[in-house]
């Protein structure tokens, strides 16, 4: 059930404790892909994963702004601090738990959110407020994960499958020409760059033309299936905390 279109009485009558919260970011994705890429992909995979399970799941509205200050030199990018993000996600989840939806999967589409979401999940779970598990779609697509960049083949391919009109195909060559091969500026196993603009001219990392719609469909199906398996596992898991040894 989508909370955005449900009424409170619809929600009152549900018999489930399982909820999904899509989490993304509003940030640059090169000259060819939309600022909302991370939100759009998280929502689409969240909905597809829910459709694949034979149980009621509450689908919360997406959280559209995340930890993205590393893209601040590119106009349109929005961000909040890590503390604000953790607090906001945590309190949003706590409000779901207040209504009995205390098994929560956070479906994430932005790499900058990963560490904070893991911390939020651990904190809420250990406190007994809810059992919270983060799921990042591009970490769940097998060997494809090795090609994850930024506005690169995975995100471009997925959007070519989901929302092809949003990809500015006439800018793909420019995206390739101004992009970087990898994320960061590395010496002695240390990334010396803090902002994306230090190593990519136009915000792109990876070759977007390596992600066609067919690859995007494979990514979508793989991520949705992985999420469905996770939802089933979260629904069935014994979430009581271990006793002190």
TrEMBL record:
GO MF annotation terms: hydrolase activity, acting on carbon-nitrogen (but not peptide) bonds, in linear amides; metal ion binding
Pfam family, one: Creatininase
UniProt-listed GO biological process terms: riboflavin biosynthetic process
Matching Gene3D superfamilies: Creatininase
Classification via SUPFAM superfamilies: Creatininase (SSF102215)
Cofactor or coenzyme needed: Zn(2+)
Keywords: Hydrolase, Metal-binding, Zinc
Name of this protein: Creatininase family protein
Source species: Natrinema altunense
């Amino acid at each position: 059930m989508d909370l955005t279109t449900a009424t409170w009485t619809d929600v009152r009558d549900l018999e489930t404790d399982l909820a999904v919260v899509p989490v993304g970011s509003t940030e640059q994705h090169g000259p060819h892909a939309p600022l909302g890429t991370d939100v759009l992909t998280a929502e689409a995979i969240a909905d597809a994963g829910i459709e694949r399970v034979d149980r009621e799941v509450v689908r919360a509205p997406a959280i559209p702004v995340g930890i993205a200050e590393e893209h601040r030199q590119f106009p349109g990018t929005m961000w909040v601090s890590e503390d604000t993000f953790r607090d906001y996600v945590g309190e949003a989840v706590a409000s779901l738990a207040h209504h009995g939806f205390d098994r929560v999967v956070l479906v994430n589409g932005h790499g900058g959110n990963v560490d904070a979401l893991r911390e939020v999940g651990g904190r809420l779970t250990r406190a007994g407020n809810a059992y919270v598990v983060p799921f990042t779609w591009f970490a769940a697509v097998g060997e494809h994960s090795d090609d994850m960049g930024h506005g690169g083949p995975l995100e471009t391919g997925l959007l070519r499958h989901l929302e092809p009109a949003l990809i500015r195909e006439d800018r793909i060559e420019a995206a390739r020409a101004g992009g970087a091969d990898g994320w960061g500026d590395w010496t002695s196993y240390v990334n010396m760059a803090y902002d994306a603009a230090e190593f990519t001219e136009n915000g792109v990392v990876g070759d977007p033309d390596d992600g066609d719609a067919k690859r995007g469909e494979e990514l979508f199906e793989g991520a949705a299936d992985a999420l469905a398996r996770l939802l089933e596992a979260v629904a069935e898991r014994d979430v009581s905390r271990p006793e002190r040894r």
